């Protein structure tokens, strides 16, 4: 027997009360959100994950896919750090790849905006979630998107290539395809090779179809030619990225391994030192860091607005379920929504319906 909406709502309210006790202010957000903001943040890809509709007065809108974006907007308009917020309510996600999963469910969240001591803020949020979820026997895993972005930023290649890799950090297959192409591991497709070798690539192209202008197409071709002329990315650098992405150990061993990688990729060191400070802050909060798992690639498929520390709580007894809770740091998101004025933030969400499934053995 499944979990009823009333049961899920009651569990959400219970969890929200726990976050209020921890000092958070309860807030609410409209179910209909402006599509323009979310499209600006995530591009057209979000249409595959969100429910989009047309409002006669407001134009294109989306059913709320999460709370983080509207909460950040609210804070950037009227809040002052440090601030703590909590919320609960329904979110709506299309599940084309996983039709067996719910497309409408409750989320309960906790968001902390703090300008100083990011390691302590990360530790506060993680420890609160760990304590709240302790009765459920979940497995915690952590990661750090900032370590991977630092590694990409330190690559000895063109700015164009670094920017392309940065854009696709949250799309692992595309990221890998770009690395293989830039390193020469994957030869260019015959059609692209012929295009780049043609003296006049637009000759005989036929009528214009689609939204791109002829000037935009020509600029894209020139960009491809410039990339082809750059030469392959050094294989040793690609191996460093591969080694980094393969790091999957408890935090102390991961930290040791990352320090070793930073010897050959010194741009990594500031991010690794932030990881070390976070480990100390977590230990000070009573977290068993010696046993806490760290995966360098964690968060790359479902946490695209996080840019630093990330975490998740998984149910080992129910591997078929998505993560029970997820969270992380999203400083860059606050800067984008604050029109350049940032308010460093970290937070997370819990899915109460999944907790009830664990309790009921469903």
Please provide a written account of the structure.
It holds the Pfam family tRNA-synt_His. One of its GO terms (cellular component) is cytoplasm. L-histidine binds at residues 66-68, 93, 107, 111, 300, 305-306. Among the domains are: 1-137 and 343-362, Bira Bifunctional Protein, Domain 2 (BirA Bifunctional Protein, domain 2, 2-Layer Sandwich); 158-233, no CATH class. The chain has a nine-stranded mixed sheet, sandwiched between helices. The chain has 14 helices and twelve strands. The chain is 45% helix and 17% strand.
Topology:
Elements: H1 5-21, E1 25-26, E2 32-34, H2 35-42, E3 52-55, E4 59-63, H3 68-78, E5 83-92, E6 104-113, H4 118-133, E7 139-144, H5 145-153, H6 159-167, H7 172-183, H8 190-197, H9 214-230, H10 235-245, E8 248-250, H11 251-264, H12 269-284, E9 293-295, E10 309-314, E11 325-329, H13 331-337, E12 345-350, H14 352-360
Parallel strand pairs: 1-5, 7-9
Antiparallel strand pairs: 2-4, 3-4, 5-6, 6-12, 7-10, 8-9, 10-11, 11-12
Helix pairs in contact: 4-12, 6-7, 11-12
**N-to-C terminal Cα separation, in Å?**
7 Å
- Assign an overall shape: globular
Determine the CATH topology of the domain at 1-137 and 343-362: BirA Bifunctional Protein, domain 2
DSSP strand tally: 12
Structural classification: alpha+beta
Keywords: Glycosyltransferase, Transferase
Organism: Salipiger abyssi
GO molecular function: glycosyltransferase activity; histidine-tRNA ligase activity
Pfam families: tRNA-synt_His
């Amino acid at each position: 027997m499944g979990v009823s909406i009333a049961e899920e709502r009651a569990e959400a309210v219970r969890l929200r009360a726990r976050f209020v006790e921890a000092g958070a202010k309860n807030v609410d957000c409209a179910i209909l959100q402006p599509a323009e903001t979310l499209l600006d943040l995530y591009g057209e890809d979000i249409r595959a994950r969100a429910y989009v509709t047309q409002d006669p007065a407001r134009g294109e809108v989306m059913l709320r896919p999460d709370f983080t974006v509207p909460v950040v907007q609210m804070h950037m308009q009227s809040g002052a750090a440090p601030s703590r917020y909590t919320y609960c309510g329904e979110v709506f996600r299309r599940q084309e790849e996983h039709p067996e999963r719910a497309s409408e469910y409750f989320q309960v969240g906790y968001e902390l905006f703090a300008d100083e001591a990011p390691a302590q803020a990360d530790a506060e949020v993680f420890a609160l979630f760990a304590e709240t979820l302790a009765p459920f026997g979940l497995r915690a895993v952590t990661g750090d998107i900032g370590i991977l972005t630092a590694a990409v930023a330190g690559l000895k290649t063109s700015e164009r290539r670094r920017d392309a890799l940065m854009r696709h950090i949250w799309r692992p297959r595309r990221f890998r395809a770009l690395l293989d192409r830039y390193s020469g591991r994957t030869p260019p497709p015959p059609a692209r090779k012929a295009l780049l070798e043609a003296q006049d690539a637009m000759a005989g192209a036929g009528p214009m179809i689609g939204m791109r202008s002829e000037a935009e197409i020509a600029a894209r071709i020139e960009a491809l030619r410039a990339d082809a002329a750059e030469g392959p990315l050094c294989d040793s650098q690609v191996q460093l990225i591969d080694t980094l992405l393969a790091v999957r150990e408890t935090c102390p061993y991961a930290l040791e391994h990352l320090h070793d990688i930073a010897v050959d990729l010194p741009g990594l060191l500031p991010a690794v030192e932030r990881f070390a400070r976070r480990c100390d802050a977590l230990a000070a909060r009573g977290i068993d860091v010696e046993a806490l798992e760290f995966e360098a690639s964690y968060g790359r498929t479902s946490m695209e607005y996080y840019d630093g520390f990330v975490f998740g709580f998984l149910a080992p007894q129910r591997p078929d379920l998505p993560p029970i809770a997820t969270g992380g740091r999203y400083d860059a998101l606050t800067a984008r929504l604050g029109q350049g004025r940032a308010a460093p933030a970290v937070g997370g969400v819990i899915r109460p319906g999944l907790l009830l499934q664990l309790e009921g053995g469903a």
